[in-house]
Automatic annotation (TrEMBL), chain A:
<feature type="region of interest" description="Disordered">
    <location>
        <begin position="329"/>
        <end position="351"/>
    </location>
</feature>
<dbReference type="InterPro" id="IPR003593">
    <property type="entry name" value="AAA+_ATPase"/>
</dbReference>
<dbReference type="GO" id="GO:0005886">
    <property type="term" value="C:plasma membrane"/>
</dbReference>
<dbReference type="InterPro" id="IPR050319">
    <property type="entry name" value="ABC_transp_ATP-bind"/>
</dbReference>
<comment type="similarity">
    <text>Belongs to the ABC transporter superfamily.</text>
</comment>
<dbReference type="Pfam" id="PF00005">
    <property type="entry name" value="ABC_tran"/>
</dbReference>
<feature type="domain" description="ABC transporter">
    <location>
        <begin position="15"/>
        <end position="256"/>
    </location>
</feature>
<dbReference type="InterPro" id="IPR027417">
    <property type="entry name" value="P-loop_NTPase"/>
</dbReference>
<dbReference type="Pfam" id="PF08352">
    <property type="entry name" value="oligo_HPY"/>
</dbReference>
Automatic annotation (TrEMBL), chain B:
<dbReference type="InterPro" id="IPR003439">
    <property type="entry name" value="ABC_transporter-like_ATP-bd"/>
</dbReference>
<feature type="domain" description="ABC transporter">
    <location>
        <begin position="7"/>
        <end position="254"/>
    </location>
</feature>
<keyword id="KW-0067">ATP-binding</keyword>
<dbReference type="InterPro" id="IPR017871">
    <property type="entry name" value="ABC_transporter-like_CS"/>
</dbReference>
<dbReference type="GO" id="GO:0055085">
    <property type="term" value="P:transmembrane transport"/>
</dbReference>
<dbReference type="GO" id="GO:0015833">
    <property type="term" value="P:peptide transport"/>
</dbReference>
<dbReference type="InterPro" id="IPR027417">
    <property type="entry name" value="P-loop_NTPase"/>
</dbReference>
<keyword id="KW-0472">Membrane</keyword>
<dbReference type="InterPro" id="IPR013563">
    <property type="entry name" value="Oligopep_ABC_C"/>
</dbReference>
Amino acid sequence: MSALLATEDLDVSLLRPNFVSRLLNPWPRKLFNILEGVTLFVLPGETLGLVGESGSGKTTLARTMLGLTRHSAGRITFEGREVRTPADFRALRRQSAMMFQDPTGSLSPRLRVGTLLAEPFTIRRMAVGDRSALVRSMLAQVGLPESVAQLYPHELSGGQARRVGVARALALRPRLLLADEPTAGLDVSVQGEVLNLIADLRREHGFAAIIITHNLSMIRHVSDRLAIMYLGRLVETGPTAEVFKRPLHPYTATLIRSEPVPDPRRKRTELAIRGEIPSIFSRPAGCEFHARCPFAQPRCRAEAPAYQAVAPGRNVRCHYPMEIEQQERDAAIPAPINRRGSSNEVEHRQA
Amino acid sequence: MSASLAVRDLSVRYQTPRGEVHALRHVDLDAEPGQVIGIVGESGCGKSTFVSALANLLPPNAMVEGAIGYGGTDLVGLDPCRRRMLQGNEIALVSQDPMTAFNPVLTVGDQLVDFQHHRSDLGRAEKRRRIAAMLERVGISDPERRMNSYPHELSGGMRQRVAIAAALLTDPGLLIADEPTTALDVTMEAQIVHLLAELRREYNGIIVLVSHHLGVIAELCDRVYVMYGGEVLEAGDVEEIFDRPRHPYTRALLACDPARFDERLERLPTIPGAPPNLIDPPPGCSFAARCSRVFAPCHTTHPAAKVLPTGHVARCHAVVL
């Protein structure tokens, strides 16, 4: 199957925001890559999870895919055709939709929900016929009562605001939905409702979805494939179940182990990851993850690893991907507590 | 100083133009020094009202009834001046958003000096030494340099560490952490949870931890209070709550957590319906409208809190002793 949307070696650069150095030395300007060499695709009808810490470039990538941020190198293709000019991006945005991070903040505070729901049609200058009937059907689709149409965004609860966001995003029947942190700040039950709603509508209308999140326990249930980002680069991609079962990049493994488990008998004593994500303006030399990596070798400090395919559908950016054969051997031995999957590899690799 | 906490029949009502909101109803809570108390529940269930009542941060339109006994003194009945004196020394709060907890135009070092204003016996240099030691203890490297940073220069995880250091500087007997990891990434959350787990070993006061993240509660707490609609529906030791939940709401809440399932689920479990309106709370059980085990008395009679032999407390008609 050919990709719906794909990026090849995508870079996004910014000028270093240092006023003084620009004043003293206006040329040549120093560029800093926010995203670097991102090669990613999403298939028609599939759900891709985009995972990483704050500052890893997830939102920038989503914005770049829709042309809201300009890329400085690389290619974006939609259904095999390159998207380059502003007109191309307008056509792409007509077929795709973005749910922004802040559900209430992305709704104009001065408009009622009814007006907000009809807005996509107004912007595209599409005839809607009976507007109130349209609004009613959109509200019904996302499970909101009709009375919500009369409310202002500040009167909505977090879950209701997300539902309005879903209805707006799907109003024009997009081929692709980009949802930026669709469940941030929601209660666990409401989170389930919003994700089930997106999944139901996806089954009905068959659009592809990219879900940006740092919530691993949620994304493993809703995505087909995962892409893990670190400091503006992809570090691992693969089918969700396989990534959770056998993470190849040490960063993925530590992310999975960082998730607290709702079981009082499994209190962790070891900390999975130390330190913080480095600044994009001072990228570490070599592998960017080496300072936080429990397995870093001298080579990792000197030489940046390539993003390579190691198994069908699985790519990883690591000199020493956690060996697949090793993990398969471990999986064959029933470990007493190996719920999170990666405790064995850690010991073997250190040995 | 370490003292025990005994909250008895605490109710909070807010006067609003739309009517009286019963934000907190008849809450009982006990804690001994050294214990970590977890408070869990959905948004709008009264968690924040409860910790605000403990920390004396309720808005002026709040009316408080009942008693908050701390070391034998009832904080509710205390005159405001004495309550502030006691609270400043004894009760510290770590809030959800570490950005707004600090003054943006002062360095964190200056602010942490100000937090120690009650220690008139210490000079400024001595206070700065205490700060440096405390920042080191919460895992901030190069504390001398960090003290000269402004809050915006610190990352979210580091700000939360500074907020915890600030709370511990007053040597409080009661440390309240209101959603301390909600605004953080999973890696920073793991680090803050790890820090709190380390601190609780040496800290001999009470920690009250509010979170809607069940994993965090399971990892850190000794005793858990499950809140819903302004009430405590179930309370018990952490193993009891997670392994043998008695109240249907606790069961539903635990079942909703996607972290409990390793295999992919086609549909995520949810609790149908919405929490009750607290302006006109239902006469019966507050969870009756969403409960799967509802029967006749649930809609009409308010269930009493039943104490089970295991020390478990459940407010449900379906629970039999």
